[in-house]
Design brief:
The chain is α/β, with parallel strands linked by helices. It has helices at 16-36, 74-84, 87-105, 120-124, 128-139, 152-157, 160-171, 188-191, 203-207, 213-228, 241-249, 269-275, and strands at 40-49, 55-66, 70-72, 113-117, 146-151, 175-181, 198-201, 232-235, 254-255. The structure holds ligand C2E and magnesium ion (3 copies). This is Diguanylate cyclase (GGDEF)-like protein.
Length: 282
Amino acid sequence: RAKKAGTGRVVVYEPHMHTEALDYLSLHGDLQYAMHEDQFRLQYQPLVRLDTGEIAGVEALVRWHSPTRGLVMPTDFIPIAEESGLIAEIGQWVLKSSATQVAAWRRINPDLTLNVNVSGHQLRHGQFAANVTRALAVAGMPASAVTLELTESVLMNDSEAAMASLASLREMGVQLSIDDFGTGYSSLAYLRELPVNELKIDRAFVDRVESTAEDLALVRTIVDLGHILGLRVVAEGIESPEQLAALRRLGCSYGQGHHLCRPVDPEEMPGILTDSPITPAA
Ligand code: C2E
Ligand code: MG
Ligand code: MG
Ligand code: MG
């Protein structure tokens, strides 16, 4: 790494661009191998009804168990999977595996729904909607019980091809969600035009919900806006009893976060579903 420059000192630049290129190549190579060696796993985090504590659904979150790198989190490999195009294959695996898994859990809770994160690159793939249909059909998961999470920038920016994908998904009954809401730049005017069913308030806002009156008002505005537009509103990243209480008071209908339940391995889910409703310490 380049040394911090002090006055009159020689600045030493390491060839970090070269190093980054090598990292990229090595990660890309390992990722390709990972798909074929079955090194991806899913964890699931409940989406909880804030009024009753009941588990309404689960969000699938991908992890990479690399034999050489250890546990790799999605923020560290999804961007590379996107750049290299491998996201199409990984995303299809996530969809197929999670749909199969949740279809089985619906024997415990017949109304259980599934949320899956989808990147813009997947959406631009011409066969995306068809691939989703096929994966859900094979898994025996009704389309109406599946919500695809997209970020604001993907929803606002994307090509006609991507928008066509979204339209066919909507036609087959798949639901759509805006993930990390508030971190992008959607205008309020545009929000009502988006073909979404759900809005997930980014955890940066949830984090600040009780710091100042302004922050509280901001979250209240997002919750009210979502409800006015007829959307399910989900608060992400609820970490404390105080945040939970604040969101309940604001009438936010759903929440996710460590205070309610961390992402868990699939083996733990039947027990959690059987014990639902979740009753976190107040
Ligand atoms: P996201 O979709 O916004 O998912 C929420 C992230 O917040 C998850 O991180 C989750 O573990 C974490 N989280 C949940 N509750 C709390 C909390 O109370 N506090 C804090 N600090 N964090 C909490 P994770 O699993 O590391 O995933 C990060 C991001 O990677 C996801 O953000 C999503 O954008 C992406 N991602 C995950 N799985 C997939 C996937 O299968 N496909 C694609 N395309 N992206 C994925
Ligand atoms: Mg998400
Ligand atoms: Mg996200
Ligand atoms: Mg999010």
